Amino acid sequence: MVSKTDNFFFANSIEDIQQKDWNGCVGLDHPFTRYEFLAALEKSKSAINETGWQPFHYFQMNNQKKIEVVCPLYIKSHSYGEYIFDHAWAEAYHRYGLEYYPKIQSAIPFTPVTSERIIVHKNIKDKNTFKIKAAQNIINKANSINVSSVHFNFIKEPLFINHNLNKNLLLRQGIQFHWKNKNYKSFNDFLKTLSSRKRKLIKKERSCLEKNNLKIELLTGNEIKKYHWDFFYRCYLNTTEKKWGASYLTKDFFIEIGRNLSSKILLIVAIEENQMIASALNFFSKTHLYGRLWGSLKNIPYLHFELCYYQAIEYAIKNNIKIVEAGAQGMHKIQRGYLPEKTWSLHWIKNDKFKEAIGQFLDQEINLLNKEKKDLEEFTPFKNI
Known about the structure:
- The strands form two sheets. Strands 3-6-7-9-16-10-15-14-13-12-11 form an eleven-stranded mixed β-sheet.
- It is 35% helix and 26% strand.
- By secondary structure, the chain is an alpha+beta fold.
- The relative contact order is 0.14.
- It is built from eleven helices and 16 strands.
């Protein structure tokens, strides 16, 4: 179902929009904003109304009925699967007898990856004007329906803050850990830039393959078969249920992305005596490798670091990929070459009193995170930075 206002629309399913029209606007490079990824989340029943992710995707058309702006949107009844935590805000609302949910969320479900949230067609030159207008349209819609707030998570950069919407949108900062390819020729070339102690640590951890007689397979595209996805899902369940007690993604999700998005997927598999024992799921664009999920059926020390960090670095070097993003959080990534980087989100709060209180909190939080980032950089493993 699609609701229309002037030349912009809100769709209750990605399937209400033509794949060629959506991808024609967002492009084919970034895997998570592509139609195939979002459709897999819905078709697999991983991100639907029943799981607290009611699709509410924004799209805008020109006079020729061509899509020129899109924004993945959801009406949410909880705050799980977002990786920018606002549970304290919800609790404060509750204490004052107010409802924080539902809220509108612009995000890629279960995917803490920075990318454009309001995506303007490449042929449009004045993209900022279109983004500002789209953001205002979304806020106006939120004002007219029963939601408390609008959140744009993991935006590429806080463009809107410098424009007329700065009084309505609150800026929030976070920290992730990314590895950057400084034109390394090999993994050893990367190691040479590290302190002696960190080089020894990484070599010790990487020796887990030889000590346990493990082999590694890197699979992309048609190399990834259905039995690989069956195995990966076993790994995923085994790890997520131990760590979080729940699994957000259904098996059908992995089957769907394997069927329709395998050209953007790198699956790393560890093999012991011809048996697969662990695997890590990555996506990639021309410039980025995104480590997303991993799982193991056997507890082998350092295997997580090998599959999720070191194999990713090696692949990035061999394929001239500039940045590896290994997911949210994880200070332990620093000593393995992943350094702190700022992430951004924008928030519109309908209630004026809570907007003021949250704004003050975010100002303090940004100051603390700037200090934290500076402190973390003191632990860099590199010889010179």
